[in-house]
Amino acid sequence: MCGIVGYVGNEQAAPILLDGLERLEYRGYDSAGLAVCGEHGGLTVKKTKGRLQVLREMTHDGADQPGCTGIGHTRWATHGVPNDVNAHPHVSQSGHIAVVHNGIIENYAEIRRELTEKGYHFQSETDTEVVAQLLDYFYQDCNDIFEAVVRMIHTVDGAYALGIVCADCPDRLIAARKDAPLLLGYGKDCNFIASDVTAIIRHTRDITYMEDGEMAVVEGDSIRIYNSQLQPVEKKHYYIDWEIDAAEKGGYDHFMLKEIFEQPVAIRKAIAPRIQGGKVVLRDLKMTPEEIRHIRKIFIIACGSSYHVGMVGKYNLERMLRKSVEVVLASEFRYSDPIVGPEDLVIVISQSGETLDTMAALREAKKRGARILSIVNVVGSSIARESDDVLYTWAGPEIAVATTKAYSTQMAVLNLVGLYFADVMGTMLKSDYDEVVKGLQEIPGKMESILSRVDDIKAIAKECAGHENVFFIGRNVDYALSLEGSLKLKEISYIHSEAYASGELKHGTISLIEDGTLVIALSTYGPLFDKAMSNVVEVQARGACVLALTTDSHRAEMEKAVPMLLTISDIQEMLLPQLGVVPLQLLAYYMALERGCDIDKPRNLAKSVTVE
Ligand code: M6R
Predict the structure, then answer these.
(1) Is 597 a catalytic residue?
(2) 153 pLDDT more than 70
(3) CATH at residue 134
(4) Are residues 299 and 339 in the same domain?
């Protein structure tokens, strides 16, 4: 999604903005641009389609844009194709005001029509340009940029994070937020705005998050924040303790590979402080045992890979709690008139904490009285702030668009929630509970052992990379895992891939299996191993080429049946996907590498999906 960074201080803004934009690249973009208030009045605006390197060359690394106040943007096209004109910043007709925007202005067509009638000429196809021209219109009238922003905000509908500069007040940025993330950074003799903290962490770790309806006037020595009634507000500051290295590649070819290898450490960080004396202790949970015992039904709401974590969670939580768990895609939940109320718990899962559909679903559930427990990676993000309870995954910044360590830590935290609730509700045998706790603690070590065999997976990936159609099959938790394995593969390698519950094959899909079709058979779940074997035989009989994933204890039997095999250590059944996902991530990574794909920034995808 679009990325915003803004700087005001004593140093030249453009190089700082370019550096910030580079750190936002992972969010996905197709064009980029800068607007800087010139030292002798006026604005300089440079923008271009394509990678940031093009903007760097165009501006000589920012040197061509003197001035100490500016805004930068990476655009992910929604309205209007990716090209130079549609790139941000957008400049008002008078040339005095420049705007960067993340979000969608829903009534832009109507505003554009009205402004056109008033003599405004639009250059781009974007919704954002109406913001620049509308500001111009109001500014002509009041000659006060803050007042113009207030009037503009009352006119537009939709979602926005906005950074605005005006040539007539070159020491100031204006920021505004509604339904799109934006934070403020407090530096030394300088201040910042940014879509996320990675853009400014080199300069400051002292930040505050803007809330919906808030506006901020940002100058080099002060930040004034106002609520929607224009009253000044004091905000909580957050200290960001990530290491800068955590947002850099550290010797790996891609962020995705680095993040795959970070999983053992990330899981340790997520679980170790939450298991004490063999028991799960969730000190960060405010829910009382009484409230937990009275939960009627659990909903898990999320998108994409986070939804796939929810699918594993359904199997595991129902087994641990003997309580009905419904997993719903956030984009469906919000429009489904959901049957959810005060007696229900809604578990919201999101790495970024900013996914718009997930946020909207959370608000819908909250409006209906449900209690919200979120599992989030980004501290202080919108979803975290609006939830009744938050459990952070503590995975550190995840930069690659394809999630890996966030998926694993979300699952670990969800398993902890299951165990904690089971303990309170008394729904698990002590021996089963102890086995899962012990298993969770063993995950990092067992993951390390899989990672040490990366060359075997690389070799298999090489053999498989030429396939254009792949089917993942599995039952129970293997089915839930197959959804993630398939998504990982298709999103970074662009190979067409589908995931099916093995039992469903005969109901239609098997007609697609022909000579040489690659089927990845997930058969780690012991109780259904024989059934998994039957499915392997069934697809092989139709000509499929099978790659199986199973556990060490089933290796010998599976080896006899299939030409390609991946294995993981045995572990308590509910935890199998925690290990099984690692070879699937590596398989997707190396297949995509073989095919020469842009792994960290797959086409058409964005890290944080802040539009509907
Ligand atoms: O930040 P979130 O967890 O809310 O994001 C949800 C999905 O967009 C995300 O999981 C997406 O599917 C992954 N990046 C795919 O690897």
Answers:
(1) no
(2) yes
(3) 3.60.20.10
(4) yes
Both tokens assigned to 179: 């339904």
> pLDDT, tens digit, for every residue of 537-572?
999 999 999 999 999 999 999 999 999 999 999 999
Instruction: Name residue, tokens 């190089």.
Output: 15
- Which percentage of the chain shows pLDDT scores above 70? 99
pLDDT of residue 604: 82
Q: Which residue has the tokens 């936002």?
A: 24
- Give residue 180's pLDDT: 85
pLDDT the model gives residue 540: 95
Which of 269, 314, 488, 607 does the annotation list as catalytic? 607
- Please give the structure tokens belonging to residue 580: 């099984």
461 in the same domain as 406: no
Give the domain CATH number at 417.
3.40.50.10490
In a shared domain, residues 222 and 264:
no
Ligand 1, from 27, 305, 608: best to mutate by most atoms within 8 Å of Cβ? 305
pLDDT value at position 250?
Answer: 66
- What digits encode the pLDDT tens for the residues 1-52? 689 999 999 999 999 999 999 988 877 678 999 999 987 889 999 999 998 9
Domain termination residue (choose one: 449, 466, 492): 449
The mean pLDDT of 118-138, rounded to a whole number, is 96
Tokens 């070159």 correspond to: 170
Could you confirm whether 46 is annotated as catalytic? no
Same domain? 196 vs 316:
no
Looking at the DSSP bridge assignments, the partners of residue 217 are 174, 224
DSSP 377: S
Closest CA to 53 of 44, 41, 45, 62: 62
Asked if residue 612 belongs to a domain, the reply is no
Taking alpha carbons only, the member of 163, 264, 171 closest to residue 222 is 171
Instruction: Calculate mean pLDDT across residues 334-360.
Output: 95
73-110 residue pLDDT tens: 999 777 778 899 999 999 999 999 999 999 889 899 99
Ligand 1 atom with the shortest distance to the CA of 403: 16
Give residue 152's domain range: 3-241
- pLDDT at 251 > cutoff 90: no
CB-based burial label for 162 (10 Å; 0-12, 13-18, 19+): buried
294 domain residue, yes or no: yes
Same domain, 273 and 413: yes
Identify the residue with better confidence: 432 or 269. 432
Q: Which of 422, 449, 476 is the last residue before a domain boundary?
A: 449
Does 214 lie in the same domain as 287? no
Whether 213 and 180 map to the same domain: the answer is yes
Instruction: Say how many Å lie between the CA of residue 21 and the centre of ligand 1.
Output: 21
If asked whether residues 152 and 20 sit together in one domain, one would say: yes
375 within a domain of the structure (yes/no): yes
Q: Which amino acid residue places its CA nearest to atom 16 of ligand 1?
A: 402
What are 299's two structure tokens? 């909903």
Tell me the Ramachandran region of residue 530: left when phi exceeds 0, alpha when psi lies from -120 to 50, beta otherwise: alpha
Q: How many domains does the chain have?
A: 3
How big is the CA angle at 563 (ends 560 and 564), to the nearest 5 degrees? 110
Residue 609 lies in a domain: no
